[in-house]
Design a protein that fits this description.
Length: 221
């Protein structure tokens, strides 16, 4: 699918509502934060022709979205900008039409061009006890989708970051380096990855018992 990635702020009211509908239709209610609360982060919207037909303005219509946050340590003695970006939400308006793959390619190309070195995100664990069969399949399919596009499922256990909506499903951690080998920073250690995500995405410091539990379960202490 051919399209392009734009900032949500560049869209008119009708397109913003279309993006809201994609977001609210892509996730169960318990995983949804209020749409307006998302706007503290950067929302990128994928525009493409609808059913192969472009609009009169040539821009296409919203068919997917990615909500991202650069991981920056603003503490006086902190690391500053890590060069990493955290993916909070990723959604395609329709499945089976190549929208997700096209959006992923546009997103990673955009971040790479901006000098970002790593994309990090979490996914629901398909092995969480008590999940309905359709959710197990959906979570596994999502992991396979990301792996097919270059994502890596990291060997992190007992990863339980807090969530803005209070819902705490069992999660797994994935990442994707954005620079080719030899073109950027060396591969980071798993402990650094875990501690950075907890601290800069979720505000949980490295000495918190939750972080120590994750590190211990993952054989990192």
């Amino acid at each position: 699918m051919s399209g392009r990635l734009v900032e949500l702020s560049s869209l008119g009211a009708a397109d913003v509502e279309a993006v809201r509908a994609i977001y609210e239709g892509a996730f169960p209610d318990e995983l949804l934060a209020p749409f307006e609360d998302l706007l503290v982060d950067r929302m990128l919207v994928y525009l493409a022709g609808e059913d192969g037909v472009e609009r009169e303005d040539g821009r296409g219509v919203p068919v997917g979205l990615a909500l991202v946050r650069d991981l920056v340590d603003a503490a006086p003695a902190g690391r500053g900008d890590t060069g990493w970006t955290f993916l909070r939400y990723f959604a395609a308006g329709r499945r089976g039409q190549g929208i997700g793959s096209a959006l992923w390619a546009e997103l990673t190309d955009r971040l790479r061009a901006e000098g970002r070195t790593r994309l990090v995100w979490d996914v629901e664990d398909p092995d969480e006890p008590g999940l309905a069969a359709h959710l197990v399949e959906e979570h596994r399919r999502r992991i396979v989708f990301y792996e097919r596009l270059g994502g890596r499922l990291r060997p992190v256990r007992d990863y339980l970051p807090p969530h803005d909506d209070g819902h705490a499903p069992r999660l797994l951690l994935m990442d994707q380096p954005l620079l080719p080998p030899g073109a950027g920073p060396e591969e980071v250690g798993l402990r650094e990855l875990v501690e950075t995500v907890y601290a800069l995405r979720y505000g949980v410091p490295a000495d918190d018992p939750v972080v120590r539990r994750t590190l211990a379960a993952s054989g990192l202490v």
